Amino acid sequence: MNENTKSRLMMILLRVVVYAILIFLTVLCLFSFYMMIINATRSNAQLQAGFRLLPQEHFWDNLKNAWTDASINIPRGMLNSLFIALTSAALTTYFSALTAYGVHVYSFRGKNLVFTFIMAIMMIPAQVSAVGFVQMMNKLHMTNNYIPLIVPSIAAPVVFFYMKQYMESVLPLEIVEAARCDGSSEFRTFNTIILPIMKPAIAVQAIFSFVSSWNNYFIPALLLDKAEMKTVPIMIAQLRSADYSKFDMGKVYMFILLAILPVMLVYIILSKSIIKGVTSGSVKG
Amino acid sequence: MSLDNRPSGRRKSVSYAKWGYIFILPFFLVYFIFTLIPQVLTVYNSFFTNYMDGLTHIGPDFVGLKNYVELFTPNKQGVILILKYAGNTMILWFLGAIPQFAIALLLAVFFTSYRLNIKGQGFFKTVIYMPNLIMASAFSMLFFTLFSKVGPVNQLLQQTGLADKTIDFFVSKVTVRGLIALMNFLMWFGNTTIVLMAGIMGIDQTLFEAATIDGANAVKVFFRVTMPLLMPIFVYCLITALIGGIQMFDVPQVLTNRLGMPNRTSFTLVMYLNNYLSTSKNYGMSGAISVIIFLITGVLGGIVYKFLSAQYKEPVEQPRRVRKGARK
Amino acid sequence: MKKLIAIVLCLLMVVAAVACKKTETKTAGKVFNIYAWNEEFKGFFEKYYTVPEGVTVNWIINPSDGGVYQQKLDEALLNQANAAADDKVDMFLAEADYIGKYVNSDATMGIDKIGFKNADTMYKYTIQAATDDNGVCKGVSFQCCPSALIYRRSIAKDVLGTDDPDEVQSKLDSWEKFEAVAADAKAKGYYMTASFAETFRTFSNNCTMPWVDANKTLQFDPMIEAWIAQTEKFIDNGYTLDCGIWDDEKNQQMFADGKTMCFFGPAWYFNFCMGNAQDPEKGCSGDWAICEGPMAHFWGGTWLLAANGSDNTDMLKDIFETFTVNEDVCSKLVENEKQFPNNTKVVDKFANDPNYGSKFLGGQNDILAFSKLTGNIKWENHTNYDQIQILNESLQSCLQEYFKKSVDKDTALATFYQKINETYPDIVTP
Questions:
Q1: Contact yes or no for B55 and C101 at CB 8 A
Q2: Tell me: the pLDDT tens digits for A144-181?
């Protein structure tokens, strides 16, 4: 009895501590967002006047200015970004899982070499090869084309590594064996049995890849210059290098804010499937 | 741990090896077409003098290891700059990564604990990931204004009497590094939490129940059950964080206005690389720096991977057998 | 999942197909390609220039963020010889900061080749900037950017006893006087300037030798040394603040309650940088005026350059004429766009118009004031190395650490040299 109340007290205490930590972190995380929202309600002149903690009255002006900018078609940019980010996320998760499965489940000559190789290329810094990549795409006349922005996501070493590690910790090989006994083809086993088990992992990497593709500036900026093909980060950069008569930081902040909304939406949808995937997964059989 | 290798494998007569090749084919095909050539060129270029002087292309002239020698030659003050910047990069990474992993592990355990049963999880999970959604450059821009001499942080410190005069956060090594670490922590701890959480949720729940029934307390469960099973995912987090850390660029670049002040103590390897690349497109020197970054990453990543994977090899095998038994 | 992949692949093909089609149809008709980093000139172009029939103008706009504009432009210019006729760059825009890089290269074409001649009404330095080492002019500017000393009338009255531009000028027409007034201002609780780098451009625009000599050795002009010496004094005596010229800390000094007397800037500075001064509540519109200050200088400007290999030379000539010689268009640039045009005739017209005046400057005729400053702008000593972006800006930012007392002067300069070594392998540094 005494023991019981003691542990209950401990539990309450622990909860208080946990909530305190969570609230502290929430404040820390939200503060910058709060400032972003506040900044989106201020005019360029007000922004130059320094920081303020309370919103000002230019929210709708900024929204209208950003959304209907004559030279920068923001709705179109968001559609472009959405298309690239969604397809990249789909390709990168599917093919990384496929590759990881190939390495994890099958035994073939050079398998260890394959794994070591992918681990090694993961460690090559992206900056320099990025410029070489752009030059190559120029030579292949692949500028103003989404293929160089989408297709390379099939070969994503980091996502492969995650999938491989995830399989190592949750995927029992018996399931594959069982499927073979039932006469399932290898490809079908992967698509219908393994993928559902991998759902949480896929959701996690889909979020990450969506976000990084959505926020990617450097390579798209070097490959795309047709107005109707530009993505959101290029447009933000363009707003920031606008000439003095059109320069408007209020509009820039508003656009940054707008740019975050779709990513948040995708995140909320996918983070649900992380939980669902686990509870409906077949691991526990 | 492949099927075909298992001594008890019942289907030895059928070889599945070809499926392994088929499944990894798309990855390698795309890799060779889109990534390999620029990467090989990077290494190749590091042995050449190759840059632009205005619109004039200088080189490429083969110079052997000259670029590497130049990188490791001490400057007039007797400092080997690339080592200084490598040191900066590691310090900046450590400062952010330590709280990042500590908090992420804690939160992942909290969120997945049925006993703790945290309310409002959806909200918290969304909020902690939010800093990762903003573009790093926009986030740094915001932080710069927050901590400027006339920014809200200074206003707040003065109003509450914590500081009697304006603090310039950008003159001291400690504060600049601290700010960069704080930003990296904020941007990445949510990300790590999610990955670890997904890892924990993938673990068979019956194992936790069994351990609890056996009388193990929460701490024991964490070290004996959670950690060993989570290890592959944890290794993933650590190695990708390490790779990201060594390639740290956006945050210090924007926050310190490309300078890495004071006296380049928060100047990172990739900022160094970028200085060579951005104006004169110096493929020779930047190629050499890339190779060095690659070697550093390879060595450190390899050590982490070997060390952690080996250490937890045994406990990882165990629960699988338990699970098999439980299913019967 | 399979279906999803199938859909994705289909979409990819559609995108690829669309992208291909577009490049194919381009071969028909004449195309005029213009590279720019923002929409400023595009706006003027569309309003004031009539494109000849049968020609499509194609704007390729890349942001200057991260060096993307120059990177893409360079790529296109280096590929110019191999590009199809309608894909060739015809004209591109360049800023004062890096115009030398393009003018002194084969990427640009002399204006004589397109049959254009510079007019007497153009400002001399705008021609010099577009002229290469062999004396061949490669383009024109549609604006002129003399920079002035912008002062607070109320503070000038307090410190100098007058706010009349001519009288203020007579009290600030040399650096000795400027420094003496700074001491007076300080005694009355004011700052002379609000940034350690505020006066940098006035010095650097008056250098007599370029940053890099014939042997590609870095050299410090006496003017740069003078700026460093002056700034040391100003910081130590508290005449100025240790923040940069774009920082909020400086911008806040433009409010009515600001304590700073002098700023330096050209006509575009009022709208671009002085939003705080124009703020209806906290600002102080009308409390400003301009005069030449201790030294004539300029700041910024956009040039139109003729790309070598252009197949639309008649149109190039036409555009150059429209924005420099055409008085009607130049007048409209003043009236509608608040530009300071590159046409002395038009400038004189507004300068002598008694009804023309700026409210922000308390009724002062800014065109008149600026026009007085145009004559002695010096371009001679610019080098091909992009001035502001790397050398000037790096020097300022490296020395800022010294002015803030976080490093000593030698360390700050060593960092500056290091930065140059990284950016320009050819330049020899001490």
A1: yes
A2: 999 999 999 999 999 999 999 888 877 888 888 888 88
Give the one of B18, B204, B249 whose C-beta lies nearest to A284's C-beta.
Answer: B204
Shortest CA gap A84–chain B (Å): 16
Average pLDDT in the C382-411 region? 82
Say yes or no for a CB contact (<8 Å) between A186 and B103: no
Q: Report if residue C357 sits inside a domain.
A: no
Assigned domain for A95 exists: yes
Residues A43, A164, single domain; the answer is no
The whole-number pLDDT of residue C239 equals 96
| CA distance linking residue A207 with residue A209, whole number of Å | 6
Contact B3 A256 (CB under 8 A): no
Q: Which pLDDT tens digit goes with each residue over B125-134? A: 888 988 888 8
Interchain CB contact of C13 with B (< 8 Å): no
Give C5→chain B minimum CA distance, Å: 13
- pLDDT tens digits for range C140-178: 999 999 999 999 999 999 999 999 999 999 999 999 999
The 3-state DSSP class for residue A248 equals coil
CATH code of A118's domain = 1.10.3720.10
| Coil, helix or strand at residue B58 | strand
Contact check, Cβ <8 Å, A29/B137: no
Residues 6+ apart with CB under 8 A from A31: none
Tell whether C251 and C314 lie within a shared domain.
Answer: no
Q: What does the alpha-carbon distance between residue C152 and residue C171 come to, in Å, rounded to a whole number? A: 15
The answer to whether residue C60 is domain-embedded is yes
Question: Within this chain, do residues A54 and A95 fall inside the same structural domain, yes or no?
Answer: no
Q: Which chain B residues are closer than 8 Å to A14 by Cβ?
A: 116
Picking from A127, A166, A182 by the largest number of B CB atoms within 10 A of its own CB, the best residue to mutate is A127
Task: Enumerate domains of chain B plus CATH numbers.
Answer: 78-327 (1.10.3720.10)
Give residue for tokens 């005739």. C345
How large is the ipTM? 0.85
CA distance to partner chain B, nearest, from residue A36 (Å): 8
In a domain, C358, yes or no: no
Q: Compute φ and ψ for C424, nearest 5 degrees.
A: -125, 95
The verdict on a CB contact (< 8 Å) between C63 and A241 is yes
Nearest CB to B150: which of C252, C414, C426? Answer: C252
- Containing structural domain, residue C284: 148-298+375-423
What residues 69-98 of chain C have any CB closer than 8 A to a CB of chain A? 69, 71-72, 75, 79
Structural domains of chain A, count: 2
CA of C185, closest CA in chain B: separation in Å? 23
| Tally of structural domains, chain C | 2
pTM over 0.90: no
**B259 closest CA partner among B192, B170, B145:** B170
Per-residue confidence (pLDDT) for residue A183, from 0 to 100: 86
CA distance C333 to C342: 10
Cα–Cα distance for residue pair A280/C230, rounded to 1 Å:
73
A285 domain-assigned: no
CB B132 within 8 A of CB A47: no
Contacts of C19 in chain A (CB under 8 A): 144-146
